[in-house]
Design brief:
The complex is a heterodimer. By secondary structure, chain A is an alpha+beta fold. Chain A contains 3 helices and 5 strands, in the order E-H-E-H-H-E-E-E. Chain B has one domain (2-152): Molybdopterin biosynthesis MoaE subunit (Aldehyde Oxidoreductase, domain 3, Alpha-Beta Complex). The chains are: A alpha+beta, B alpha+beta. Chains A and B meet through strand 4 of A and strand 3, helix 3 and strand 7 of B.
Chain lengths: 80, 159
């Protein structure tokens, strides 16, 4: 099980701030493939640049996921 | 010596500077940066300007990211205190949005560390800006390649 959190335009496009995923994909790349396979609006969301944080640290496609992880998905940041 | 805050309220540069300097009389220099909400959209007086700017963030991760950026600066330069305050929520053009203070015995360390913290914050701290225009439209602000280049230049420099 992993906890997904969506921010900014992802949250708006998906109409949700997040969800609990009952399965635990092995890696970030596997998670994104799983989400993309849902079709729209995920295909459109993932066609843009999406950053992924695992347990609040920036992650890469090969970053491993574990049971209970918090995974944030969001666009490139624009603070400051 | 590192103090980071994320808050909707305005900050007072004078108060923050005073608190920062209370820590040590060995401080010789304090560099400060204050970022303001800019009306990006205003190209001429006829154009539809930015009415409000809403700042969203990732609670928890944001504070960790700001803390880590400040720690990286403190490893790289001789710093006695660092203070980073970033506002969230709804802001107006002209409102202060971010404050960075760096204290050092030497001015060059204070200047460089202040600039480094802002450059890295712009590309790594999870904040997102949404503009609401005076004509009623709204849009998420796009990230800028120039910000990535500004952050990247610190990597070529012995880091």
């Amino acid at each position: 099980m992993i906890e997904l959190l969506y921010f900014a335009n992802l949250r708006e496009t998906l109409g949700s701030g997040g969800e609990t995923l009952e399965s635990t994909p092995a890696t970030v790349a596997d998670l994104l493939a799983h989400l993309r396979a849902r079709g729209e609006p995920w295909e459109a969301v993932l066609a843009g640049k999406v950053l992924v944080a695992v347990n609040q640290e920036m992650a890469l496609p090969d970053t491993a996921l574990g049971d209970g992880d918090e995974v944030g998905l969001f666009p490139p940041v624009t603070g400051g | 010596m590192i103090h980071v805050r994320v808050q909707p309220e305005a900050f007072d540069l004078g108060v923050e500077m005073q608190e920062l300097c209370q820590d040590s009389t060995a401080i010789g220099a304090v560099a400060s940066f204050v970022g303001l909400v800019r009306d990006n959209n205003r190209v001429d007086e006829q154009a539809s300007g930015v009415a409000t700017m809403t700042l969203e963030h990732y609670p928890g991760m944001t504070e960790k990211a700001l803390q880590r950026i400040a720690e990286q600066a403190a490893e790289r330069w001789q710093l006695q205190a660092v203070r980073v305050i970033h506002r969230v929520g709804e802001l107006q053009p002209g409102d202060p949005i971010v404050l960075v203070l760096t204290a050092s015995p030497h001015r060059h360390d204070a200047f460089d560390a202040c600039q480094y913290i802002m450059d890295i914050l712009k590309t790594e701290a999870p904040f997102w800006k949404k503009e609401r225009l005076s004509d009623g439209g709204e849009r998420w602000v796009d990230s800028r390649d120039s910000d990535s280049r500004a952050a990247g230049r610190w990597e070529d420099d012995g880091f």
